[in-house]
Specification:
The chain is an alpha/beta fold. The chain is 16% helix and 21% strand. The protein has four helices and 21 strands. The strands form six sheets. The chain has a six-stranded parallel beta sheet with strand order 13-15-17-19-20-21. The chain has a four-stranded mixed beta sheet with strand order 1-2-4-6, with no helix packed on it. The longest helix is centred in the first third of the chain and has 27 residues, at 2-28. The protein is elongated. The N and C termini lie far apart (100 Å).
Amino acid sequence: MRHLEFKKTVIFPLIILTAGIASCNKDDEPSVPQHEDFIVKDGVLVRYRGYGGEVVIPDNMGITEIKEEAFLNENYVKSIVIPDEVTKIGAGAFALCTELVQINIPDGVKRIENATFINCSKLASIRIPDKVTYIGSSAFSGCRSLTEVNVPDKVTYIGSDAFSGCSSLTEIDIPAKVTYINIYAFNNCSGLVSVKIKDGVRRIDLYAFRNCTSLEYIEIPESIDYISGNAFQGCSRLSFVKVGWQQPLYLYSFNNPFGDVDLASATLIVPSGTYYYYSNIWVDFGTIIYDYQWESWYEYEEYYKKYNKD
């Protein structure tokens, strides 16, 4: 009897232990491949914890979202490849990545959230996908190496300070579906030379283009029904302003959109047959010409070609 009891005592715990190990292994087994450089939970890249350089986010981990601040202040990251499956990028996801030079935004992304790329000071160019409808506040603020950026036709909102301090940006086209250009949106874009606002935009807010000290040409469509005071304050090189109104907006000295800009040497380009109206209202401009003259007169031909490359 003692011999049988001894066998039971030994065998029974072994059965429990073996079952426990099997159960533990099954529960802890990862459903997707793991990578030591990334913390991923339920398809969300929560945090990058690698050593920088050229970062490639794996496309076999089921990642569809990059969480806000996932790469915040990762100063050693130089480039990032994001999988095509990613459709959402959180606010501040790449904020303060001061060495970041190159990154792709997948075609499925529809929003550039607040401060997504703020102070990515070495980012030289970026393609915003065609599906994007929203560019948040400070999204690209402080990207001082950014020389070109496209604003897709589907964009309806550009937030405050969205491109503030992008001092290497030389030209920008604002699409027709943007309701209004927000406060400080292009503030201190000191390299900006040409701005074209498409017909459909309704409002230009306070200091929207303040201190764009290289700005020479602005195209303002007929759809604009309000321009805030000092919207173009500090645009000291402003040379040509083309407008689309048959009846011009009134400019008040206390709320002048051009602020302290000396317009005596600037040329105002107006629709045919509207000279009289503008000469009595937009009186600060040294020269007023019709748009057909702008296109064909030899005196302006060089400038027309410069600002109308398409």
